[in-house]
Amino acid sequence: MKPVATASERRNHLPFWVALFCFLVIVYASLQPFTGWVAPAKNLLQSTATLTTRWSYADALFNVVAYLPFGVALSACWPVAWRFWPRWVATIFFAAAVSLSLEMLQLWLPTRVASAVDILANVLGAAAGALLGTYLVQSTRLVRHLRSAREALFIDGATGDLIIVLLLVWLAAQANPGIPLFGAVFHPGTSGSFEPAVLAVEIAQTSAALVGIGLFTDLAMRKRWLGGLALMTVIALAVLLKTTAAQWFLTPAAWEIWLRPGHTLGLALGAILLTALFWLPRAVKSVIAGVALLSSVLVSLLIPDLVTAKAPLALFSWHYGQLLNLNGLTRTVALLWPFVATLVLLARFGYRSK
Fold first, then answer.
1. To 5 degrees, how large is the angle CA 65–CA 70–CA 75?
2. Does residue 7 lie within any of the structural domains?
3. What is the structure's pLDDT at 89?
4. Were both Cys, which of 12, 215, 221, 305 would link to 289 (CB 3.0–4.6 Å)?
């Protein structure tokens, strides 16, 4: 009989999932809108030599912050036997290669500007993140405490680590106040208008999203009482983050655009359903969570204009150059997240229920 691995012997997939997500975010932010590819007039060597040095403090700071978590997570992905310097240097080298490759690809996108300053800022962010990540990895006591807490609170395995990352990703996406709370699409109408069809869709979408995310959070926890506590914590954090983002980033006239009447009624209905569904077995809850998450996106197809509508930049009081990237990124995450989360639930609980 194969012995059961202890907490310290199990492989930790959490840094890998975080690094992978950071990588995908960086690729998306660097290459969107992914259309209009045109070969540069100069050859690659000449284009590289003429990379612009145009920059702004806000964009440079954004690049540093974007690569910092990538450096932290990537530094924890290398073999355990690696010491400080090999781990730090390998992380910087890998991040620099990623940054340089993406800046070169931007030469084929007329809407993007390849910049040597961006590369420098990206490497600086990755180096700072690698320094922090390497220090954390080398702190044996801290790693042991974090691993023990992770094993005690959350479900185990690679899918358990991925579920944790997905929860963090969903919370981060709430930083865009142009997307309604527990919604995936932006409604272009005025907050005072009454449209029965839109109201019904908003109620259905919001209640389904709340049920799906609530059950997804509950399923991430090892014990039922932890699931209830985590559920309330995630919902409270989402409301706090959305409210704060609306106050900071939206113009005063648009502060309430993320909480329309349909969303308010949907939250109330979703809370009632969630209270009843919370006590069901895990296998049943995983199916309901998947159906609810998919429904929260697919119900918007009843009004196709909602799916294609993006929150206009005029709503925001923040006018830095990276706003377009953040707006598009969070919208893409909000649309794709339910599908990815459903697949993860199927991989975790569908397989084990056989």
1. 130
2. no
3. 94
4. 215
In a domain, 3, yes or no: no
If you ran DSSP here, which 8-state letter would residue 29 be given? H
Domain termination site, one of 150, 166, 197: 150
Shared domain check, 70 and 161: no
Residue 230 near residue 221 (C-beta atoms within 8 A):
yes
More confident residue, 96 or 317: 96
Q: What is the DSSP-derived secondary structure letter of residue 115? A: B
Report residue 289: phi and psi, to 5°. Answer: -60, -45
CA distance 44 to 341: 40
| Look-up of token digits 């006018």 | 319
pLDDT of residue 248: 72
Within 10 A of 156 (CB to CB), how many other CB atoms are there? 13
Question: How many angstroms separate the CA atoms of 304 and 300, rounded?
Answer: 7
Write phi, then psi, for 14 (nearest 5 degrees). -60, -50
Query: What pLDDT, on the 0 to 100 scale, is given for residue 290?
Result: 94
- Identify the domain boundary among 127, 150, 173: 150
